[in-house]
């Protein structure tokens, strides 16, 4: 009898060891994910590292090949060649002009429209919002031909303004809905107070409502700036007849077509095209990610 | 009776409109832009597609349904359509589930360095597709490209692979680059969706005795379904309209092996080596593509709606 009790008692101290070992396993297990995550993410970052490294290599070193990511001798020649000979300096200015123009057009048009549509009693409001949302689901990748012809008819096909209008027009839906939602959430009392103080519609909008909407302005600016900077189809079509107006993406496309063997020059050009926008993104990533997330949730 | 009603009604209606005059004025810029560059082109594409037109003067050469007949009978068009569809299919089959797995991993607040991982995966999203496409074309170069050098150094291949230059590998390579490029945005969609699920629900399931995996499978995933449908449609639309990557790297080649519908349209309307643009024909191809896309989306709708209801009730 006593022996059986002894036998029964012996496992008792062992019992905590079980959960303990499991605890250790639970502690290690999340760390094991890093074994998968690190190589996976390296696959995503490698092209960028290669790009930067190649941009500083000499053309001779690039010809010899090899997988080393650290240049034997650092050179800035590639950037000079890309900036002046391949005209990426001009393309940068074009891209900045194009992107800022797109952002200004989108901001002005969508803030105004969003404010007008934020009035719940506006006749025809439902129809307008319905049309806006419906067009989001109709594929419009094929609209480029009529857009091009319309801009030509307006006589704008030889400037970046035409391209900016073509880029901004279809991009209005989400900003309008964002502004509309924001302005609708502001208490009407505020507008009434402004009116009592003698402010008209315009003054109320520009002095009271617009300054309040800074968060939306920030999101819309950032999202559209990045999209416009990276735009390719529209600037490509609109600069076919005018190489002076090429943006960075289109310039890169032509550089690749003409000087396909100048890898270090192209790497430098790729750096010029991507690094500014990556820096903008790094500083404002929270706004950007929240903007996209917000658009999905709605 | 009717006249007095109209008489009493009209001034009030007019006043209603006048009271909102400023609001309508505020709508004008957006209406002009959106109408001109979004709605009008959708209508005009249909109209132009009935003409044989090179863009000089107004379209006068009415050809009825000839352009449509030519598009539908063209093997090249259907090949391009199939390639576009493969881009979408790969995005749905590879990118969507893989991004969900990573989103679940990176949504875990205890995981160290998750912001760094997220940033790394998101980096390609903010860069120009055409530019990174060209960087990849260099990496995949058959002679001195890094990928071929690495593979032959490891002894995995005997002769170099012409990734983008041979008809058998060009399309899978481009699809791979497209998944690489779009992965980050899909990841952000999933993370946003996961964050809409209150933490309490997952924790309650754990307290009720569910394992972490069970809670994920039976509690969290079903709750994701309504947003998953939105994400699916977004990813589908994006990859179906792939143009920048293909145009920048292969322009649809070699031998049309990577041709997608937007590059097909581009070739007939804007290619600088073209003798005369065929706007009418290109518009017809666009219209057919648009209708097909809409049909595919609508075909998905009943299935999706059922899933949506199932997800909403659980």
Outline the structure in words.
Chain B: It is a multi-pass membrane protein. Chain B: Keywords: Cell membrane, Membrane, Transmembrane, Transmembrane helix, Transport. The complex is a heterodimer of chains A (298) and B (314). Chain A is mainly α and 298 residues long. Chain A has helices at residues 2-9, 11-14, 17-56, 59-64, 77-85, 88-117, 125-137, 144-153, 160-168, 173-184, 188-196, 201-212, 214-230, 233-238, 248-258, 263-283, 285-297. Chain B has a domain at 77-127 and 169-313: MetI-like fold (Orthogonal Bundle). Chain B is globular and about 75 Å long. Chains A and B meet through helix 3, helix 6, helix 7, helix 8 and helix 9 of A and helix 2, helix 5, helix 6, helix 7 and helix 8 of B.
Quick structural gist:
Chain A: It is found in: Cell membrane. The complex is a heterodimer of chains A (298) and B (314). Chain A is an all-alpha fold and 298 residues long.
Terminal Cα span of chain A: 71 Å
Coarse morphology of chain B: globular
Helix-strand string of chain B: HHHHHHHHHHHHH
Mean pLDDT of chain A comes to: 84
Q: Strand-and-helix sequence of chain A, N→C? A: HHHHHHHHHHHHHHHHH
Per DSSP, the total helix count of chain A is 17
Into which percent range does the helicity of residues of chain A fall?
A: over 70%
Class of secondary structure makeup of chain B: mainly alpha
Biggest sheet character of chain A:
none
Kindly state the percentage of residues in helix of chain B: over 70%
Query: What Rg of chain A do the Cα atoms give?
Result: 29 Å
Sheet with most strands of chain B: none
Q: For the terminal residues of chain B, how far apart are their CA atoms? A: 57 Å
Structural class, from secondary structure content of chain A? mainly alpha
Summed over residues and divided by their number, the pLDDT of chain B gives a mean of: 85
**CATH fold descriptor of the largest domain in chain A:** MetI-like fold
Regarding quaternary structure, how should these chains be classified? heterodimer
Number of helices, where a helix is a run of at least 4 consecutive DSSP H or I residues of chain B: 13
Most extensive protein-chain contact, per-chain counts:
A-B, 92 and 97 residues
Q: What's the number of extended β-strand segments of chain B?
A: 0
Protein name (chain A): Carbohydrate ABC transporter permease
Membrane topology (chain A): Multi-pass membrane protein
GO biological process, one term (chain A): transmembrane transport
Subcellular location (chain A): Cell membrane
């Amino acid at each position: 009898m006593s022996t059986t009790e002894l036998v029964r008692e012996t496992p008792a101290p062992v019992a905590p060891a079980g959960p303990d070992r499991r605890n250790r396993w639970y502690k290690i297990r999340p760390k094991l994910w890093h074994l998968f995550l690190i190589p996976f993410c390296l696959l995503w970052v490698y092209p960028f590292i290669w790009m930067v490294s190649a941009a500083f290599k000499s053309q001779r070193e690039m010809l010899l090949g090899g997988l080393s990511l650290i240049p034997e001798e650092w050179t800035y020649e590639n950037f000079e060649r890309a900036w002046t000979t391949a005209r990426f300096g001009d393309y940068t200015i074009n891209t900045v002009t194009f992107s800022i123009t797109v952002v200004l057009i989108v901001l002005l048009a969508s803030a105004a429209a969003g404010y007008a549509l934020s009035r719940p009693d506006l006749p025809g409001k439902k129809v307008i919002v319905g049309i806006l949302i419906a067009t989001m689901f109709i594929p419009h990748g094929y609209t480029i031909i009529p857009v091009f012809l319309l801009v030509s008819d307006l006589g704008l096909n030889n400037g970046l303004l035409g391209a900016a209008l073509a880029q901004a027009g279809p991009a209005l839906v989400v900003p309008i809905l964002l502004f509309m939602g924001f302005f609708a959430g502001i208490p009407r009392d505020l507008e009434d107070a402004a009116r009592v103080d003698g402010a008209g519609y315009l003054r109320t909008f520009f002095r009271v409502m617009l300054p309040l909407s800074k968060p939306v302005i920030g999101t819309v600016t950032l999202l559209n700036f990045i999209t416009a900077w990276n735009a390719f189809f529209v600037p490509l079509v609109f600069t076919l007849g005018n190489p002076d107006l090429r943006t960075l993406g289109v310039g890169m496309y032509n550089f690749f077509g003409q000087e396909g063997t100048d890898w270090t020059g192209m790497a430098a050009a790729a750096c010029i095209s991507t690094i500014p926008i990556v820096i903008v993104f790094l500083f404002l990533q929270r706004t950007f990610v929240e903007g996209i997330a917000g658009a999905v949730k709605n | 009776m009717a006249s007095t009603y109209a008489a009493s009604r009209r001034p009030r209606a007019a006043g209603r409109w006048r009271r909102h005059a400023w609001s309508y004025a505020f709508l004008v810029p957006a209406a002009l832009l959106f109408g001109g560059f979004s709605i009008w082109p959708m209508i005009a594409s249909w109209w132009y597609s009935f003409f044989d037109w090179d863009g000089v003067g107004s379209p006068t050469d009415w050809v009825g349904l000839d352009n449509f007949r030519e598009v539908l009978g063209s093997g090249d068009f259907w090949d391009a359509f199939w390639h576009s569809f493969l881009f979408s299919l790969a995005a749905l089959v590879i990118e969507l589930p893989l991004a969900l797995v990573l989103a679940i991993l990176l949504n875990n607040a205890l995981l160290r360095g998750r912001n760094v991982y997220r940033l790394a995966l998101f980096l390609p999203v903010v860069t120009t597709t055409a530019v990174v496409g060209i960087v990849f074309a260099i990496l995949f170069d058959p002679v001195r490209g890094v990928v071929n050098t690495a593979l032959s150094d490891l002894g995995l291949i005997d002769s170099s692979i012409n990734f983008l230059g041979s008809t058998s590998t060009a399309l899978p390579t481009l699809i791979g680059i497209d998944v690489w490029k779009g992965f980050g945005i899909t990841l952000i969609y999933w993370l946003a969706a996961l964050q809409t699920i209150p933490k309490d629900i997952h924790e309650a399931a754990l307290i009720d005795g569910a394992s972490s995996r069970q809670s994920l499978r039976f509690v969290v995933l079903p709750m994701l379904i309504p947003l998953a449908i939105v994400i699916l449609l977004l990813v589908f639309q994006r990859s179906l309209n792939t143009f920048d990557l293909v145009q920048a790297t292969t322009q649809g080649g070699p031998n049309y092996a990577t041709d997608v519908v937007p590059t097909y349209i581009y070739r007939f309307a804007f290619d600088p080596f073209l003798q005369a643009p065929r706007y009418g024909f290109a518009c017809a191809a666009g219209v057919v593509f648009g209708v097909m896309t809409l049909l595919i989306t609508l075909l998905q709708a009943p299935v999706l709606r059922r899933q949506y209801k199932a997800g909403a009730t659980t």
